[in-house]
């Protein structure tokens, strides 16, 4: 995440959503959330566990990989992190506080940069309608990923 304020917003959104969901907000979960908030990009579960172990072990004790995966899955279910394919990493949602539902992850195949963007319903609405009408498929409005080249890699 880019700024201190964005980190705080992400951490607060995660804590509030977990509490509202009835989940316990343990020191380990707070450390996992902090590791995600402090990251400059997506992290795998092993990278999250490594950061938690390195930075927060005195407060949390040891955190096992299964606990990290459970927390990441719960945050993904609450739309607070986005799973990134095919890396198997997780990206904090930069739009967690907004009411937009149509997010797309732009993944650069050149430099591996990821950007989360919001697409207006006027753009994605026709796609969801087409999928419903032609394929009897109902999309769930979870973010999806488009792979290509970012501005910098396209210019190189």
Describe the structure.
The protein is an alpha+beta fold. It folds into two domains: 89 residues, Arc Repressor Mutant, subunit A (Orthogonal Bundle); 53 residues, Ferric-uptake regulator, C-terminal dimerisarion domain (Dna Ligase, domain 1). It is built from six helices and six strands; from the N terminus they run ααβααββββαβα. Strand 2 and strand 3 form a beta hairpin. The model has no long low-confidence stretch (mean pLDDT 84).
Q: Biggest sheet, strands in spatial order?
A: 1-3-2
Q: Approximately how much beta-strand content do the residues carry?
A: 15-25%
Reported CATH architecture of the largest domain: Orthogonal Bundle
How would you classify the helix and strand content by structural class? alpha+beta
H-E string: HHEHHEEEEHEH
Helix content: 40-55%
What is the CATH C level class of the largest domain, in words? Mainly Alpha
Task: Describe the protein's topology.
Layout: H1 4-20, H2 27-38, E1 43-44, H3 45-60, H4 65-77, E2 81-84, E3 89-92, E4 103-108, E5 114-118, H5 121-135, E6 144-148, H6 151-155
Parallel strand pairs: 4-6
Antiparallel strand pairs: 1-3, 2-3, 4-5
Helix pairs in contact: 1-2, 2-3, 3-4
Descriptors for this entry?
single chain, 156 residues, alpha+beta, Arc Repressor Mutant, subunit A, Dna Ligase, domain 1, 2 domains, three-stranded antiparallel sheet, three-stranded mixed sheet, 6 helices, 50% helix
């Amino acid at each position: 995440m880019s700024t201190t304020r964005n980190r705080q917003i992400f951490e607060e959104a995660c804590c509030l959503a977990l509490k509202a969901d009835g989940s316990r907000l343990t020191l380990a979960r707070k450390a996992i959330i902090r590791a995600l908030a402090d990251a400059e990009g997506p992290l795998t579960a092993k990278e999250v566990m490594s950061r938690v172990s390195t930075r927060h072990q005195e407060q949390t004790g040891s955190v096992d990989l299964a606990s990290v995966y459970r927390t990441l899955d719960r945050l993904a279910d609450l739309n607070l992190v986005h799973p990134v394919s095919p890396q198997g990493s997780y990206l904090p949602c930069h739009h967690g506080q907004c009411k937009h539902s149509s997010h797309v992850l732009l993944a650069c195949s050149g430099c591996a940069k990821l950007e989360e963007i919001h697409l207006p319903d006027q753009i994605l609405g026709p796609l969801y309608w087409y999928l419903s009408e032609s394929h009897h498929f109902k999309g769930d409005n979870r973010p999806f990923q488009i792979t290509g080249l970012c501005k910098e890699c396209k210019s190189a």
